[in-house]
# Entry
Amino acid sequence: MVAPANIVGEALDFLVSNPLFTVVLVGMLGFVFFMYLLVRRTLLGLREGYDSGKGR
# Structure
């Protein structure tokens, strides 16, 4: 069995040796996080609008 520290070390070596992949990975993670915040804000705004329309 491979030690977890060895796996992390190999992953970091891979990311450092492939800067284009690292940039694409960070971009994709940033996009997912941005979309999560956008959808969350939209749904919270919708709920607030429905509540204010009902007179709560």
Notes: Residues 4-53 form one domain. The chain has a mean pLDDT of 91. The first helix runs from residue 4 to 17. The radius of gyration is 21 Å.
